[in-house]
C-alpha cells in the first residue's frame, strides 16, 4: 500500500509540475528602469529564504554593463558595490568574482579569481583552477552567454565578463546538486546570475542568509530552483556569503542597498557588476 502511495505521488508530481522540494514564490515584477524589472522571491521549506531579483532586457535601449576596472598594484582595490555604483553613476550593481585576500576591513589591493573583463579590457585572465572557470560573458551589443572559459577561449568579442564557481542551471536542468554532492551542504547567502533560453533576459539575483528568523540562505541546488522559477535557462553562482550585495539607484538618484548583507553592512569586494539603464518616463 505504501509503495502504491509513493508511486501515485510521483505520478502527480510529473503531471502537475509540482516539486517535492521547496516551493518558490515570486511576487509580480515591477518596472524600475527602462528594460529592468524587480521582484522578491520567497523560498519555503527547510531553508526558508528571501531573495531579490532583477530582470534585464538585453534588447532595451540604454542598457549597458560595467565591471570594476583595473586598479592598484594587483588587479583591483577593494570597495563596496555601493561605492562602485556611485562612482560610475550606475543604476544597479551586484558583487561578482571571488577574490584574494578576502574580507579585509580596510581597502586593500586585491587579486580577482577568474576571468574579469571591463569595457573590453581584461582585468583578470581565465583561471587555471577548474573551480573558477565558468563565466558570464557579454559582448558590446549585449549578446550574453554562460560557459566554461580557459586560456584558449577567444575573448576578442567579450566586452564584459565576471566569473563564478558553479553553473547551477545548465540548459534548463538543475545542476546545483552536482556541486552540492559529497560536500557539506548548507544554506548560505548567494549571488547568482542567469540567462533566459532565448538569451534576451539577464537575471541578477541575491539570496540573503545566515539569519534564520528572516532568511536562512540556499544550497546551490536551491539557488537553481529559484533561477529556474524566475525563467533562467542557464545560471551561474558568483561569490556569496558576506559578499552578497545588491544595490540600486532610488527615485532620488541615491544608491540604496536592496538586500540585507549577512554581516550587517556591505563587504569590501574586489569586483562588482554594474548596469546602466535609462529612467522610466515620468
Task: Give structural notes.
This protein is mostly beta strands and 282 residues long. It has one domain. It has 4 helices and 22 strands. The strands form 5 sheets. Strands 1, 2, 3, 4, 15, 16, 17, 18 and 19 form a 9-stranded antiparallel beta sheet that branches. The chain has a 5-stranded antiparallel beta sheet with strand order 5-22-7-20-21, with helices on one face. The longest helix is centred in the N-terminal third of the chain and has 15 residues, at 2-16. The protein starts with a helix and ends in a 6-residue tail after the last strand. The model is unreliable at 1-20 (pLDDT under 50).
In short:
By secondary structure, the chain is mainly beta. The protein is built from 4 helices and 22 strands. It is globular and about 45 Å long.
- Percent range of helical residues: 10-25%
Whole-number tally of structural domains: 1
Computed Rg: 19 Å
**Ends apart, CA distance between termini:** 63 Å
Low-confidence stretches: 1-20
Coarse shape: globular
Amino acid at each position: 500500500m505504501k509503495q502504491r502511495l509513493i508511486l501515485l505521488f510521483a505520478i502527480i508530481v510529473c503531471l502537475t509540475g509540482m516539486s517535492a522540494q521547496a516551493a518558490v514564490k515570486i511576487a509580480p515584477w515591477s518596472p524600475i528602469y527602462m528594460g529592468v524589472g524587480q521582484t522578491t522571491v520567497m523560498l519555503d521549506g527547510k531553508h526558508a529564504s528571501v531573495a531579490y531579483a532583477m530582470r534585464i532586457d538585453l534588447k532595451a535601449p540604454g542598457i549597458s554593463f560595467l565591471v570594476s576596472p583595473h586598479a592598484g598594484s594587483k588587479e583591483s582595490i577593494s570597495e563596496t558595490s555601493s561605492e562602485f555604483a556611485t562612482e560610475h553613476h550606475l543604476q544597479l550593481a551586484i558583487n561578482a568574482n571571488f577574490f584574494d585576500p578576502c574580507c579585509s576591513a580596510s581597502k586593500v589591493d586585491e587579486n580577482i579569481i577568474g576571468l574579469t573583463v571591463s569595457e573590453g579590457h581584461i582585468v583578470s585572465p581565465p583561471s587555471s583552477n577548474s573551480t573558477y572557470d565558468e563565466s558570464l560573458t557579454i559582448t558590446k551589443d549585449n549578446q550574453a552567454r554562460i560557459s566554461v572559459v580557459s586560456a584558449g577561449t577567444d575573448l576578442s568579442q567579450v566586452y564584459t565578463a565576471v566569473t563564478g564557481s558553479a553553473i547551477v542551471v545548465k540548459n534548463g536542468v538543475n545542476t546545483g546538486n552536482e556541486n552540492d554532492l559529497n560536500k557539506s551542504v548548507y544554506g548560505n547567502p548567494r549571488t547568482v546570475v542567469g540567462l533566459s533560453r532565448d538569451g534576451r533576459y539577464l537575471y541578477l539575483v541575491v539570496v540573503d542568509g545566515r539569519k534564520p528568523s528572516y532568511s536562512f540562505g540556499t544550497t546551490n541546488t536551491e539557488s537553481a530552483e529559484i533561477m529556474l522559477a524566475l525563467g533562467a535557462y542557464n545560471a551561474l553562482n558568483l561569490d556569496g556569503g558576506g559578499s552578497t550585495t545588491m544595490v540600486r539607484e532610488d527615485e532620488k538618484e541615491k544608491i540604496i542597498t536592496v538586500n540585507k548583507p549577512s554581516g550587517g553592512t556591505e563587504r569590501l569586494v574586489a569586483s562588482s557588476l554594474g548596469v546602466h539603464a535609462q529612467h522610466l518616463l515620468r
